């Protein structure tokens, strides 16, 4: 009859369990480490995604309005503002002295033209009609009027004007021509030798330009007088349509 060796069998069983326990422990440790590795938070590293908590701001140009559809962000927008109307209380700029000064070539007249001398008009304007000259004995037009006055009587400027010419005419004697406003030029003929003005001189209303004389050859047979002829825009006109009796 075989003898059973229970002591040896019992020893093998104990070692087996020890080994099994160690294996289970190892597997459990490995499992724990693996789970810890999986559950551990990832280490921070470079990321291409912006965090949702990061705040960003883009500087705006003063000249770009926020609500402008269709305008690229990188394209500055020019805002045109309408100029404000001038205030009604703003004082108007005063004109310069040059603007107020009249041009040298212009002559202005003020008020009515006065008679250069006082006297009877014995030879009026003929308005193109032929009249017989007492001095020359022939028929001709009389393109002015003759005002009777004593020799030496002062002859005055009928208005403000400018002396155009002073001459000793071979027919009309001492003659003065003065330009006035409105295209009017007045000729004073048969004057004395004491002319009081010069060519180019500005004269005022009532200024003495000379005196009545008897220097006109073509009217020497007439009584002492001042011959006055008036042209408007180059055409002879009736002096009485311009002058006012004083």
Give an overview in words:
- The protein has 246 residues and is an alpha+beta fold.
- It has a domain at 118-244: Distorted Sandwich (Glucose Permease (Domain IIA)).
- The chain is 15% helix and 25% strand.
- The protein is built from two helices and 14 strands; from the N terminus they run H-H-E-E-E-E-E-E-E-E-E-E-E-E-E-E.
- The chain has helices at 6-39, 97-100; strands at 113-114, 121-123, 130-132, 139-141, 145-148, 154-156, 161-169, 173-180, 184-191, 202-203, 208-211, 225-232, 235-237, 243-244.
- The strands form four sheets. Strands 2, 5, 7, 8, 9, 10, 12 and 13 form an eight-stranded antiparallel beta sheet that branches. It has a two-stranded parallel sheet with strand order 1-14. A two-stranded antiparallel sheet has the order 3-4.
- It is rod-shaped.
CATH architecture assignment name of the domain at 118-244: Distorted Sandwich
Given the C-alpha coordinates, what overall shape results? Answer: rod-shaped
**Class by alpha and beta content:** alpha+beta
CATH class of the domain at 118-244: Mainly Beta
Number of helical segments with 4 or more residues: 2
Strand content: 25-35%
Approximately how much helix is present in the residues? 10-25%
Kindly state the number of beta strands. Answer: 14
What's the overall average pLDDT, rounded?
Answer: 76
Q: What's this, in brief?
A:
This protein is an alpha+beta fold. It has helices at about 5-40, 95-100, and strands at about 115, 120-125, 130, 140, 145-150, 155, 160-170, 175-180, 185-190, 200-205, 210, 225-230, 235, 245. Strands 2, 5, 7, 8, 9, 10, 12 and 13 form an eight-stranded antiparallel sheet that branches. A two-stranded parallel ribbon has the order 1-14.
């Amino acid at each position: 009859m075989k003898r059973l060796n229970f002591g040896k069998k019992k020893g093998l069983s104990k070692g087996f369990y020890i080994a099994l326990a160690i294996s289970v422990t190892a597997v459990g440790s490995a499992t724990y480490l693996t789970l810890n590795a999986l559950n551990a938070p990832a280490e921070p590293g470079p990321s291409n995604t912006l965090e949702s908590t990061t705040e960003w701001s883009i500087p705006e140009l003063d000249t770009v309005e926020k609500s402008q559809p269709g305008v690229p962000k990188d394209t500055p927008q020019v805002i045109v503002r309408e100029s404000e109307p001038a205030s009604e209380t703003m004082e108007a700029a005063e004109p310069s002295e040059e603007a107020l000064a009249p041009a040298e070539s212009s002559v202005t007249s003020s008020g009515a033209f006065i008679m250069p001398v006082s006297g009877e008009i014995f030879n009026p304007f003929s308005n193109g009609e032929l009249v017989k000259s007492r001095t020359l004995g022939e028929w001709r037009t009389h393109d002015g009027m003759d005002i009777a006055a004593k020799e030496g009587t002062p002859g005055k400027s009928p208005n403000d004007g400018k002396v155009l010419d002073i001459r000793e005419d071979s027919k009309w004697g001492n003659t003065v021509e003065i330009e006035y406003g409105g295209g009017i030029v007045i000729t004073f003929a048969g004057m004395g030798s004491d002319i009081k003005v010069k060519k180019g001189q500005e004269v005022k209303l009532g200024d003495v330009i000379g005196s009545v004389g008897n220097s006109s050859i073509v009217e020497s047979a007439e009584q002492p007088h001042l011959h006055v002829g008036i042209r408007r825009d180059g055409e002879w006109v009736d002096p009485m349509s311009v002058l006012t009796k004083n």
